[in-house]
Write a structure and sequence with these properties.
The radius of gyration is 71 Å and the shape is elongated. The protein has 4 domains: 34 residues; 31 residues; 161 residues, Trna Endonuclease, Chain: A, domain 1; 58 residues. It contains 11 helices and 7 strands. The strands form 2 sheets. Strands 1-2-3-4-5 form a 5-stranded mixed beta sheet. Strands 6-7 form a two-stranded antiparallel sheet. Belongs to the RmuC family.
């Protein structure tokens, strides 16, 4: 559009106007070129500044990268050293732990072998015990041997608890019966009867019963046998004036004793009515200890006169000891008085020593000769001089008595 305007103006203008226009056009072009150059220069300077900024940033980045690489290198070296030390310590601990575990394993194996040896010994003992149990079962299966077993336990308890001579095994009564044990009571009292023939076969039959009906029949049989045995004891062994009015039926097992009192209360009441006391090993031992205490009390009563005599002798000894203590006290009093007299004498001696140490010596005649107070006669100067010479060495002793 500008070119069309210029072209229209050139057509209408003269040669001077065209020259001016041309000059203006040249100036405009030059200004435009200068503006373009200035713009290009500013752009170049801006680009150069940006380039320099990029170069500085690149240099700073390279420095930082170098620093980071050095830092990463040092950190990597430290990390490698730390990892190496950690790995070495870990390997050492693992080695120590493995060694300890190995040693502990060997120790546990050794203990296990010892325990296995103990278990083997215990198993051998159990086997021998099983053989003994089988033998005991064989013994208990026989009635006579079973009675001997119960009587053996009873005899052991009594023999351990009572002194010899205070009991009799298999003693004979006036009716020709022989109870298992007779315990002699003090004060000439009748002996106490103990029976150990407990009906154990009926108890074993009741225990071995498999069905309820068989168990009920075995229980009835056990009750009947036990009551029959209680009546036999009351009839044979309770003799008025010859034995105590109460007898003991020894049961050789605590469990059987507990089961009887739990399930056969009526039978226990019948035994009390018949004056027969069912005792277990523990109750028998307690009863024997009571009897032993009664015997000990009886022996002490029998020896009461001896105790009284000993007490009288002890009182006599105490009286003599009291007299001797009084005499010794009088001796001590006399010795104290003697010591006081000795102290008085030593006090007098000390005072006399002090008086002796306080003695004063005076020279007589020396002061009078010097002062000239003594008169001298004429013609006797020589004699006066001799008297003064004699009295010069004479001394006067004065004792100062403090008393």
């Amino acid at each position: 559009m500008i070119l069309e305007t210029l072209e229209a103006a050139l057509r209408t203008a003269g040669p001077l106007t065209i020259g001016v226009l041309f000059l203006l056009a040249c100036v405009f072009v030059l200004g435009l070129v200068m503006l373009v150059r200035q713009a290009s220069n500013r752009r170049e300077r801006a680009l150069q500044r940006q380039l320099e900024t990029l170069v500085r940033a690149q240099n700073e980045m390279q420095g930082r990268m170098a620093t980071m690489s050095e830092l990463f290198g040092s950190r990597q070296a430290e990390l490698n050293a730390a990892l190496g030390s950690r790995i070495d310590g870990l390997s050492q601990r693992i080695g120590t732990t493995l060694h300890q575990q190995n040693r502990s394993t060997h120790e546990n194996l050794r203990r296990l072998q010892e325990r296995l040896a103990v278990i083997d010994a215990a198993q051998n003992n159990i086997q021998s015990l099983a053989k003994d149990v089988v033998g005991l079962q064989a013994i208990l299966s026989n009635k006579q041997t079973r009675g001997a077993f119960g009587q053996g336990r009873m005899e052991t308890i009594i023999a351990d608890a009572l002194p010899s001579g205070s009991f009799r095994f298999q003693g004979t009564l006036s009716n020709n019966t022989r109870p298992d044990c007779l315990i002699d009571m003090p004060n000439d009292a009748p002996p106490l009867v103990i029976d150990a023939k407990f009906p154990l076969e009926a108890w074993n039959a009741m225990r071995d019963a498999e069905t309820e009906e068989a168990q009920r029949a075995a229980a009835q049989r056990f009750r009947r046998d036990l009551e029959t045995h209680i009546r036999d004891i009351s009839k044979k062994y309770l003799l008025p004036g010859e034995t105590q009015d109460t007898a003991f039926l020894f049961v050789p097992s605590e469990s059987i004793f507990a089961d009887i009192h739990e399930h056969y209360e009526a039978t226990v009441q019948k035994a009390h009515t018949a004056r027969v006391v069912i005792v277990s090993p523990t109750l028998l031992l307690l009863s024997i200890q009571v009897v032993q205490a009664v015997m000990k009390d009886q022996r002490m009563r029998e020896q009461a006169h001896l105790i009284q005599g000993e007490v009288a002798n002890l009182m006599g000894d105490l009286t003599r000891l009291n007299d001797r203590v009084e005499k010794l006290q009088s001796h001590f009093s006399q010795a104290r008085q003697d010591v006081e007299q000795i102290r008085i004498s030593t006090g007098k001696l000390a005072r006399r020593g002090e008086r002796i140490s306080a003695l004063e010596f005076e020279t007589k005649g020396t002061d009078t000769a010097l002062s000239g107070q003594r008169p001298t006669e004429a013609g006797s100067e020589t004699g006066a001089h001799d008297k003064d010479s004699d009295s010069f060495g004479r001394m006067k002793l004065r004792i100062v008595d403090e008393d």
